[in-house]
Amino acid sequence: MTQRVEVLELSEYGELFIDDELAELVDADFWATLGITVSRTPRAAAWTLKAGALAGIARTASRAVDLTVHIAPKLSGADITFLAEHAYGQKVDALRRPKTDRVGVDTKHTDPVATLLVWYVDSLREFATRWLRRSYRTRRVVLNGRVRGRVLVGPYVSRSLTNARANEIPCSITERTIDTGNNRLLKAGLRRVAKLARALPIPAAQRAVGRAVAGALPLFADVSDVEIGPAELRAVSVRGPERHYASIVATTIDLLQGRYLGQKVGQANVESFLWSMPHLFQEAVRGIIGESDQLALRSERRPTAKYFDGAGVKLRASRIDPDYIVDGPRGVVLLDAKYKDALNLRGEDTDLIESASGPTLRVTRSDIYQLAAYRQHASWDAAPVALVYPVVVSPTGMLPASYSVQGLGAPIWLTFVDVGPRAREHVDQFIDRIADLRGLSTE
Predict the structure, then answer these.
(1) Which residues have a Cβ under 8 Å from the Cβ of 79 and sit 6 or more positions away?
(2) Which structural domain, as residue segments, surrounds residue 170?
(3) Does residue 59 contact residue 271 with C-beta atoms inside 8 Å?
(4) What's 400's DSSP letter?
């Protein structure tokens, strides 16, 4: 049987047609992992693939088919590396991605697969350079005719003496070593990244990730290579003297357990690195605001709206949860990030907003009503509210001024953050506009 080899190129929320044979060869769970729906209308000649919010690369291979799917972000011209820098390099996270000139990824490579892999490896290398020291490890050994550490009396009596082997003495030894559960986990993460690098579509990106892994592995030369399973995870500790491992260990476990990549789909091996563009945008905005000197993100428990029956008995509570609660120089501002609406995707609940001097976007009416409801809560004292949309500013353009929705009390703002090639130039301007919303809303 001849193996069929295919490479499919889609865009985020885009569609592509495939034939009957390919639809039959690929497991349905593979498409589900990628957020792709597969459908066919009556009398249609082909199956329709429709991508969702996930972007990235995925590969499934079996005897019958070797399929690679690449889903490109739909926001044309977006600097995904810029989004990745802020999403995965926030002040609240101990891991910070190094500066761009240290990454070595080809400048034309704009999807964040290689960027995030190199970010992880470089973060791991920086951590190892500073913190990879000998720690104490306790292990059990059986010594012949000598004692070291603590004698395990129970096993000695029940095994050695009863079997006439009094010379075999089981002991518990505590020793200083670099070969600890934490470090074994980190080395397994490096090995996993090296494997993932082979699935990257751009040779320059493969080489960049390979160089990063090669530079970090020597730091773990005295650490054992092990397959990470439940027993190895139980040996990991992030408490007490090991608490500085917490962030890097959490990230590595995510990597190894498939929260960033698929590992198995049925009986076919899968190599993939997928990310949600709306989530990447939302976390990037969080990072931009969190790194600002003017603004601060509130992290306290969100307030609730409460339901009561006719007798005044409380039935339940519903959390009021805007994406960001921002403390600025003039008070609190409530923000929601809206990546998808900037793509001009149609829907029954959307209004097309066109301007001669600003970007075209679709605004979901329910989002507007939701923000109007947010600010009614007593916790926020009629705070100004805004939806945040991504835009790609042209080489000669300026960051668009905020739009406003009026007629629902104080204005509801539609504001913009540049995610294009000039995004870094406009970060301060975006922060200034968020800081000014309190003043604009009370004028």
Answers:
(1) 110, 419, 420, 421, 423
(2) 135-177
(3) yes
(4) P
Whether residue 204 sits in one domain with residue 96: yes
> Is 277 part of any domain?
no
Under DSSP, the state recorded for 340 is G
Cβ contact 288:85 at 8 Å = no
What is the rounded CA–CA span in Å between residue 400 and residue 385?
A: 18
User: How many residues would you count in the chain?
Assistant: 443
SS (H, E, C) 235-267: CCCCCHHHHHHHHHHHHHHHHHCCCCCCCEECC
138 backbone dihedrals φ, ψ, rounded to 5°: -105, 130
Cα separation, 6 vs 68, in Å, equals 6
Whether residue 425 is contained in a domain is answered as: yes
Match 């130039």 to its residue by tokens: 425
Tell me the per-residue pLDDT of 195-251, one tens digit each, with 9 for 90 and over: 888 876 667 667 778 888 999 999 999 899 998 888 888 888 888 888 888 878 877
CB atoms within 10 A of CB 347: 12
**Token duo for residue 186:** 């980190």
Number of H helices, E strands in the chain: 12, 21
Place of tokens 């509801």: 412
Domain count of the fold of the chain? 4
Tell me the three-class secondary structure of 45-97, residue by residue: CCEEEECCCEEEEEEEECCCEEEEEEEECCCCCCCHHHHHHHHCCCCCCCCCC
Task: Give residue-wise pLDDT tens across range 325-356.
Answer: 988 767 789 999 998 777 666 677 788 888 87
Tokens coding 396: 């000669």
* Domain match, 241 and 214 both: yes
d(CA 376, CA 380) in angstroms, rounded, equals 8
176 vs 274: which has the higher pLDDT: 176
Co-location of 335 and 407 in the same domain: yes
d(CA 81, CA 210): 19
SS3 347: coil
Same domain flag for 191 and 249:
yes
pLDDT value of position 210? 85
Task: Give which of 280, 283, 281, 285 is closest to 295, Cα–Cα.
Answer: 285
Q: How confident is the model at residue 439 (pLDDT cuts 50, 70, 90)?
A: low
Q: Residue 357: how many CA atoms within 13 Å on its side-chain side?
A: 4
Residues 358 and 433 in one domain: yes
Report the candidate in 407, 433, 245, 410 with the shortest Cα–Cα distance to residue 328. Answer: 433
CA gap 412, 384 in Å, rounded: 7
Of 157, 177, 197, the one marking the end of a domain is 177
Write out 291-311 in H/E/C secondary structure: CCCCCEECCCCCCEEEEECCC
